[in-house]
């Protein structure tokens, strides 16, 4: 095994040398950035096979830079993505991985590939979740914003839902309400009334968890100006608000066990099960 790894590293070093040679410039020769990029890619693959992961990352980064200079933007982004994946999966370096996923996102966006660009931001966010939830949330929000600005919102529904889930799990209720409202706008544009109904109920539950019963009532009234008023989700939201107003914890507990609530996204359903009527009544 060690012999194979040594052989792969030697092969990688040769590819690096060929890549460096292709970047040389003199009176008779311009840098051949595409050839350099190809050789750096091969070097990275060899380093990876030899489990020399840090060297693989450096080679992928060199490949990305060379391919960018030869206007091969998609391939440049892909090399940076490969570097980020190694940092995340093999080296368990989430901050480093997130930084490279962000660079890959920028490159994909330059290539006019917004879906891949958003995917990179989401991968960076997922890598950061266990170590820096604030930065993870920031990357999720950036991904959502990117899809919105490119008018690709319908392709980002899962991203919006994941962002809301992380926010709710970490008690960032205000941010969760904002992202759920933005998801609602996406559903309205498709249109998807079932998605709208679930999101409206999710907003009410989140506001109640944040102990903002006044805003929850206000939002419910606004939602009921539209088709939401005819839905089962609307009936559940109304019952939740009644239980809060009456200070009836037993009624509240019955409502949150209903199928309509259990069919919401996991973090929302869990949040609903933990709702408590105001302390004034208990």
UniProtKB/TrEMBL annotation:
Gene3D superfamilies on file: Tetratricopeptide repeat domain
How is this protein positioned relative to the membrane? Peripheral membrane protein
The record's principal subcellular location, in a coarse class, is membrane
Name of a matching Pfam family:
SNAP
Gene Ontology terms describing biological process: intracellular protein transport; vesicle-mediated transport
- InterPro entries found in the cross-reference section: NSF_attach, TPR-like_helical_dom_sf
Keyword Cytoplasm listed: no
GO MF terms here are:
soluble NSF attachment protein activity; syntaxin binding
Q: Does the keyword Membrane apply?
A: yes
The UniProt keywords, alphabetically, are: ER-Golgi transport, Membrane, Protein transport, Transport
Q: Where in the cell is it found?
A: Membrane
The cellular component terms of Gene Ontology attached to this UniProt record, alphabetical and capped at eight, are:
SNARE complex; vacuolar membrane
Please report which protein family the annotation says this sequence is part of. Belongs to the SNAP family.
Xref: PANTHER family: GAMMA-SOLUBLE NSF ATTACHMENT PROTEIN, SOLUBLE NSF ATTACHMENT PROTEIN SNAP
Protein name stated in the entry: Gamma-soluble NSF attachment protein
| Source organism of this protein record | Gigaspora margarita
